[in-house]
Amino acid sequence: MNKKIFIALALILAFCQAPSQTGVKKKRPLPYEYGQVIIDNYSEKNNLAPVVFQHWIHRSRFTCRVCHVDVGFAMKAGASNITALDNSRGFYCGACHNGKMMVDGKPLFQACSKNASEGDEARCRRCHSYGLKVASDYDFFAFSAPLPKERFGNGIDWEKAEQLGLIKPANFLEGVSIKRSTLVVQKDFALNPKVEGMPDIIFSHKKHTVWNGCELCHPDIFMGVKRGTVRYTMVDISEGKSCGACHTSVAFPLTDCQRCHSKPV
Questions:
Q1: Full-model pTM
Q2: Domain spans of the chain?
Q3: Smallest Cα–Cα separation from 240: which of 61, 16, 13?
Q4: Integer Cα distance of 82 and 181 in angstroms
Q5: CA max distance for the chain
Q6: DSSP β-bridge partners for residue 149
């Protein structure tokens, strides 16, 4: 790698890890914490611990599109305003956690019930677990051990794991999803960075449509569908816009520069 490219990568890496505007550097999450979402719209107001949602176990079973398009979860934590009544009626978490859907030969626990009782406390704590010592059905390190490794995020190369068939995320949820015609996948293309000597960005529609389809990205995240009509900056991306909608929270993080800037100039 020549000197100019090395300096450019170092500057971007430093920018991605810079302190926030409050002057406090963000703590790098542990592998099993990466992608973790804390939901507390109504929990503490009702004397319950906030909900802890683990992306890693859910993304191993479903594509992002199923949850964020078909089921309807917002892309930002807390923006869905999920209520216990929603879940009990089969919406949001209740679309799967209904006590009927079978996973690994056993029914998934029911997220919320219209007729909750004191005996349901243990079941409630399976989700309302923030700050509590609640045993999980799945151990992250045992789950991730056979999967291909990555340097950042939660240390799993999800793309390769799917390609190798080690995980098979479902793209259809019975009773929720609708049958869709397969669209022609666009070819990979290069985006030219403005920093001299920085490797070109190679964007692959094929890799993204495996997880997102088309609807998750267009038009809410990417308004323009013609290459070159919209300008993207690292500042915008680091603030959660465009690519940053996923690559600052769940997909591999911005610190993994070479995953995007992969074509030498």
A1: 0.85
A2: 37-142
A3: 16
A4: 30
A5: 66
A6: 156
